[in-house]
Every structure is written in C-alpha cells, then in structure tokens.
Amino acid sequence: MPVSPMFNPGDLIRFLPEIILTAMGTFIMVLDPLLNRRESKAYGTLSLATLVAAILAAIYAYSQPGPAFGGMLIVDGFATFFRVLVLGVGILTILPSFRFLERQQAETSEFHALLLFSIAGQCFMAAANDLIIIFIGLEISSIASYILAGYLRDDKRANEAALKYFLLGSFATGFFLYGVALIYGETGSINLCVVHAVVAGPDAPLPVMVGLAAALMFVGLAFKVSASPFQIWAPDVYQGAPTPVSAFLSAGPKAAGFAIFLRIFMTAFAPIGGAWAPLVWASALLSMTIGNFAALLQTNVKRMLAYSSIAHAGYVMVALTARSEIGTAAAMFYLAAYACMNVGAFAVVSHLSGKGEQYQSIEDFAGLAQKQPLTAAMLSIFLLSLIGVPLTGGFFGKFYIFKAALESHLVWLTVLGLLNSAVGAYYYLRLLVMMYFRDPGDAVAGVEPLSPTLSAALILPAIGTLFLGIFPGWVLDFAGRSSSLVR
Amino acid sequence: MNLLLLVLLLPAGGFLAALALPRSSPSSSRYWALALSLVTFLASLALLGWFDRRLGGDQFTVNLPWIASPEIRFHIAVDGVSLWLVLLSTFLTPICVLISWHHIQNRVKEFYAFLLLLEFGLVGVFMAQDLFLFYVFWEVSLVPMYFLIGIWGHERRIYAAVKFFLYTMAGSVLMLAAIIYLFNRAGTFSYAAILDQLASGRLLFTPPEQMLLFLAFFVAFAIKVPLFPLHTWLPDAHVEAPTAGSVMLASVMLKMGTFGILHYALPLFPSAARRCAPWIAVLAIIGILYGALVAMVQPNMKKLVAYSSVSHLGFVVLGIFSFTQLGFDGAVYQMLNHGISTGALFALVGLMYERRHSLAIEDYGGVATAAPWLSTAFLVTTLASIGLPLLNNFVGEFLVLQGAAIANFTWAAWAALGVIFSACYMLWMYQRVFFGELKQTVKMHMPDLNLREWAVVIPLIAMMVWMGVYSKSFLDPVGKTTARVLEQTQVNVPYRVDLQAPAHAEVSRAR
C-alpha cells in the first residue's frame, strides 16, 4: 500500500466525523456554565444534531476512500460501516435518555459530552489502521464510558459498576498494550499493513512471538467485547450503569471492539490464522454457552440482557472463527442487527424502570401489553429478533454467521451454536410471557405515557430490525463489498 | 395476479389490517376475520378449479428474487399434495373464526389478528419451494400459535406455550443447520434445483453425511408430527390452547411435520430414509398403540382427543415409511382426514366446554337427551374418527394398512390393533358423555346447536362423508404427486430398489 508521509488536505475530510464529534463535545462542555439549567434539553438536541452531522460526514468521507495521515487511518467501506453503526447507536442512546435523565434529575452537559467523546473514540477505532491509533481510540472510548457507567454518582450500584469497569478495563488495555509492544519489537512496525507483510513474508519473526502478541491482544479485545473468559464484568456493569448507558455499552463499544478485532486479526494476524483459530473457537463456544445458560437464571432484566449480550458476542466470535470474508461480512451484518434489537430492548427497560430505576425485574413487565400495546409490540419485535425468528434482523444475522461457519467446515461449532440459540429462546420468552400472558402489576400500572423521543427510540430500531429481516440484501451487499480489508 | 400469491397474501394483508381495527369494537374484528378468511377460502377454491389434475408437478408457480446474495428466491407453487393442505388450512380458518365468536371475549382484536397470521404462516409452509423460504414460514407459523396458546388458553397455558415453542425451536435449529449445509454443497436454496442435482448425480452425499442430514430434518419434522417419543409437548399444547388453537394445531400444524417428511426428507435423502425406515416404522407403531392406550384412560375429553392424534399421526408416518404407492396415498389422505375429523372433534368439545365449562368426562352424562343434534354431530365425527366405512378415516387407514402390509405384514398387523383400540376409547367416551342418566347440571347448561354452530358443524360433516364416499376426487392429484416422490426416493439406492421391485409391481396391479 502506498503510504505518503506528507500531510494531505484530503485527510481532513476522511477525518471529518471525529473532528465534528470532538469539537462539538468540547463545545457542549463549554456551553454548560453559559446556559440556564432549565434549558438542559438543549444539550441532548445539540448532540443529536452532532451525531446526524457526523453520520453525513462519515458518508461523505467515504466518497474519498483511502488512507489518511500516512496510513494511520483508513477510510474504507468497513470503517464507514462501523462509523455509521456507532453513530447510530449514539442517536438511539440519546433518544431515550431525554426522559430518563429528566426523571433521575440528572441532566447535565457532561453526559452528552462524554457520550460524544466515547463515540469519537469508537469512530477512531473503526477507521484505525495502526496499533497506536487503535489504542488511542480504545482509550478515548473506554475512559469516557467508565465515567458514563458511574454517571449517577449518588447510586451505589452505579459506583460499583464504574469502579469495576475501570479497574478491569485498565488491566485489559494493559494486556493489549503489551501485545502492541511485542509486535513492534518483533516486526518493527505498528502499521497493520506492514505487520501483515512482515508476518507473511520470508523474514517472519518467530511464530511463537507473534502468537503471544496475538494472544495478549486477544485478552484485551475479548474484554472489550465481553467475550468469554473475560466477560465477568459485563453483568455487574450493565446492571449498575444507568439504563441508557447500559444500552450504549452493550452496542457501541462492542461494535467498535469487534471492528478492531476483525481488522487486526483478519489483516495483521491473518497469516497465523491457524494458531489463533482454536482460541477464538473456544471463546465463541464458551461465550455462547455461559451467556445463554447464565441468562436463564436471571431475574433482573438488565442483568439478563447483559448475559444475553455475552451470548451474542459469542455468535459474532463464531463469524470470526470462520476466518473468511464471508465471516467478516456476517459479523458486520450481525452487529448492525444486534445494535438495533439490543438498544431497542434497553430503551423499553429504561422507559419502564421508573424513578430511581426501581423496576428492573422481569416480573415488572407483567401486563405491559394491556397497558401499552405499542411498547409491548416493539419489545416483542426486539425479543423475537434476539431469539432469531425469521423476518427479523437477528435471524438473518445468525443465518449468515452460521452459513459462514459451515463454509469454513466448523460443523460442531455451528450445531452447538444453533442449539445454544434454542436455549436462549427460553429467557426471551419469559419476558414475552410476562408482557402478554400476565395481568399488570405496580410497575406497569405507574408507567408513564410514551414521550415523542422515546417513541422514536423504539420505532426506529424496530424498523431497522424488520428492515434487516425482510430486506437484508442491501446491508449485506455493502458488508460483503467492504469485507475485504486492506492488507 | 397469480391466484396462489393471492391466497398467501390475503391473510397477511388481513393480519395487518386487523391490527389497525379499533380495539373498542370487537365485533368489527370478528366480522373482518370472518370475511377475510372466507374470501381466502373462495380464492383457494378457485385454485382447485384451475388446478390441472392430470399433472403431478408444481403449478401456479411464482418465482421472484428476494435476496441477492446468497440467492434466496420467493418461490411458491403447489403440487397435488400441498394443494389439499393449503385448502385444508383455508377451509378451517373461517371455521375457527366462527367457533371463537363467543368463546373469545378479551383482546378480541389481537386474537383474530394472530389467527390470520397463523393462516399466512401455515399456507406459506405448504407453498414454499425454496428451502430458506420454507424455513421462514415454518418459524413464522410458530409465533402466532405461541401467543394463541399463551394468551387465550386455559390454566396451564404459559407452561404449554413455552414448552411448545422450545420443543419446536430446538428441532428446527438443527434443520436450519442442515439447510445451510445443503446450500453450501449445492449452491442454491431452490428445492427443485437441489433435487435436479441429486438426480443427475452432481450432488452426492456420503452415507454418514446423508444420515446426519436426514436425521436433522427428520427430528424437526418428527417433533412437529409428533412421533413417539417426541410427543410430550402435544397433550399440553392441545389441552391448554383455546378451541381455535387446538383445531389449527391438530388439523394443520401437525401436518407440517408429515408434509415435511414426505416432501423434503424423503426425496432429499432417500437411502438414509430407507435405512431408517424399519426403526421409524416401529416408533410409529408404538405411537399408534401408546397413543390409543393412553387416550383410553384419560378423564379429560380434550386430552383424550389429543392422544388420539398421536395415534392417528402414527398411521401417517407408518404409511410414509412403507415406501409404497398405497402407503403414500393413504398417508396423505390420512393427513387430510385427521385434519377434518380431529378438527371437528376439537370444535365439538370446544362447544361443549362453552356450555358446561368443564372438560372432564365425569361432569357430563346424558347429553344426548339434552342436546340431540349436538350428540348426532358428535356421533358422526366419532364414527369417522374410528374409521367406519363410508366415512373419511376408513379410506386413509385402509390404504395405509395395505401399504404397510406390502412392506412388512407384521407392521400392518400391529397397526391394525390401533384401529380396534380407537373404537374402544372413542365409543367408551361417547357412551359416558352422551348416554346414561341426564345430570341436572348438564340439563341446565346444554342447549342444542345454534345457527352459528350449525355453520361450523355442517361443512365438517359434509367433508367427512364426501371424503369417505368419493375419495377419487381427492386421491387423483395426490397419487400423481406421491408417485413422483416414490420415484425420487429410488435415486441412489440400487440395492434397495431391487428389494422393493416386486412390491412395486404389486402396487401397480392393485391400482
């Protein structure tokens, strides 16, 4: 790949989404002392506008694909896909948070600024083609999300969540950094394309050293995407964090994490694929099994969704295990479908949780269909999609993933994964049972009517879920075209 | 517009429109569902009119692109077997609307919406000609039934609904794995194209590969049938479902399994199917006898009918795995017969439940005195279910037993015991419920059939008589299609074909 060390004005266009996000994040922080408390809704509106602008910028940047800043960033279909995805997750996080923050009386500018910074980090990760940039993106995204997890600072559980997330997260980043250092020592470069060339070339370093670096990076990345055996933090953090933040954590950082996971392992470490495949294989199976079986036992909805998100990370790991472009495309499609359905499901939880997030139990969903048929119908779509019922995005996602796995002859992983998804059906059905087959309880009796922003936060992902389920071709085509990463 | 597409899309459009109807006026939902299901039925009758009975192949084909890569096509068609199953679904849906008219009082709008969605899914399963599309409809039909059982069922409805969903789901994910595997090998989801490749030898499976694929398909279908020992979800689901749910479940949904075996599992994996045939036939016979014996001791009418379904469906599976023309014809005919007669039994039991609010046999007695017409209708249905000549089940059971006798006489002998048992449990139940001393509670609560209920009963009884007296009008197209299936199952199995040849010759003589 030609790498020009010269600065090139076109680079700024390729970097536009991150510029917009960072500038506006800073602006919102500065705005805080200038604005009256009562105008706090302005922050949310402003960040929504920022995110929409950033999406447009990301699409515009794709009109000039190619490397930027001497190959440190790369704007390709893959990067654009994940940029749009994390920005979309950002929008779907802010929409339900309007009412949520109002109810918790916690509307400040920091929430929105931190969210924008975190998303900026994730955009970095999506487009990074250099281990240091990846690390910087990871840190920007993570540090902002540590604070967001503990955003409700008077809440004990939120504090616990933030602390746990921070301590374990720092360790994981440390592991990742060790891997980066080792790679630099062995290959003399941190650029993924160069690393790939060296590892595949005639003067390849000792496979054991590259393998060790890959393993160290695997530890760090598996933590970020909450894949087994580094998933322990997820249930506590998702449960303790404010619900919109949990929604965000379960989709945004995870999607960006998988973006770099795919990018690093499918480019730099592709030549030693045979060595890391068993590792990912085992992690995929463990994540699916632990996630699904642990979710069976949960009574708290957020905790259940946390375990379910571990299981879904496992499905994406199956796509990674396939080690093919079809697998990469399947993972991209799945993450898009997963973002829609999971963020949508969390939006319903945040709607129902009430003041102080007191209603989080599965029992609290009893009779929702009688009180608010629309909310229940939307949540049903998300849940059916999480189960993997046809005509929803979740089904096609699973279908493409397991198709890719079978093409790579991963018969056992496919069979076990599909059986896992049948196990998973049980705990999602429990929520459906509550909503439709039981009579309303306290939580539902006191539920407030849907606000316009919340309706949007439910209807948009529902449309997305159904669209991906009925016309998956469009997104899949794009994913398929962008799945061949620059090496 | 293609007539078949119309039959498929009418219920789907009806479902969407039903969602938009006002919640405050339940009768608008009722009339809408009735009108729409009747129109769908008329459209499917037109389908019958235009169907060319001389051809065994697919007709009314619609083949549109759906997803480009991997290529999945919206490809629907009917042949001589699926045509009848489509008609069975469209015939029973208006009947289900009618029997739920007063029975369903809460969340009426949703009930009828789900009923129409169910019709859409079921009709789609029988029409699909693309394996992927088939799987989509297969799963889509699961969701409305889950809600029908879970929301409008009896006391243990939640347990039954979840059990039903999980059983079916567990089976069908394996089928999905097998479908994907087939795609990766054949490069297409089109069923006809895959069969073509198999017939021309371009697609070959090693014996263990074929066996595993066959089992993956077969287990999914066997759960749905349900074949002993995978039947345990059925009594729960049937007993807890509302009447319309039981009728659709027994009459149409169970046929998805037997249809799947006949239409997919056999032609795709003929030699594995033949190798498993003795084992499956034995399971089917165990199902026939076990279902009948358990039905005999049930104190609950609905549960009795549910177990009788296990027994009747055993005949269907036995007929299929006899690998004879007669057995196939009998199996298909028995699928339709069971749809009509067991559907009628569930409907009548539902009518009695509406009156007496009990399903226990001991709560009845002397109903014949209080409601003579209801009792007459029940008697005709009972006799049909037992297999009395001139009524529908006789023809099907006879063909199945004859086919089984050609394949293995011992099978036929054991299965015939099931026919005798069925007379025992049905007549004994009839005796206890309808004869004997008229109890005061029964007398007070048991008015005779009203006009709406006559409208439910008469078409069903007319079908029983017609199918029993003049089976030719149904069996001709069926025979054309099953002959083709039989031919397809002889691909790849030279050594078995030799073994079967004399039997085959006998069949042609018999016909």
Please tag this protein with its features.
heterodimer, A: 487 residues, mainly alpha, two-stranded antiparallel ribbon, 76% helix, globular, B: 511 residues, 77% helix, 3% strand, disordered C terminus
Describe this structure in words.
- The complex is a heterodimer of chains A (487) and B (511).
- By secondary structure, chain A is mostly helical.
- Chain A has helices at 10-14, 16-34, 41-61, 77-104, 109-127, 131-149, 156-187, 192-200, 207-224, 233-240, 243-268, 273-296, 301-321, 325-352, 368-371, 373-387, 393-407, 411-437, 442-445, 452-470, 473-482, and strands at residues 66-68, 73-75.
- Chain A has a two-stranded antiparallel ribbon with strand order 1-2.
- In chain A, strand 1 and strand 2 form a beta hairpin.
- Chain A is globular, with a radius of gyration of 21 Å.
- With 511 residues, chain B is mostly helical.
- Helix content of chain B is 77%, strand content 3%.
- Chain B contains 22 helices and two strands.
- Chain B has helices spanning 3-20, 26-50, 82-99, 108-127, 131-140, 142-152, 157-186, 191-200, 207-224, 233-240, 243-268, 270-296, 301-320, 325-356, 367-370, 372-386, 392-407, 409-434, 440-445, 451-469, 472-488, 494-510, and strands at 59-67, 72-78.
- A two-stranded antiparallel sheet of chain B has the order 1-2.
- The two termini of chain B are 38 Å apart.
- The chains are: A mainly alpha (487), B mainly alpha (511).
- The A-B interface holds A 370, 384, 387, 389-391, 395, 399, 402-403, 406-407, 411, 414-415, 418-419, 421-422, 425-426, 429-430, 432-433, 436-437, 471-473, 476-477, 480 and B 66-70, 107, 135-137, 139-140, 142-143, 146-147, 150-151, 157-158, 161-162, 165-166, 169-170, 173-174, 176-177, 180-181, 183-184.
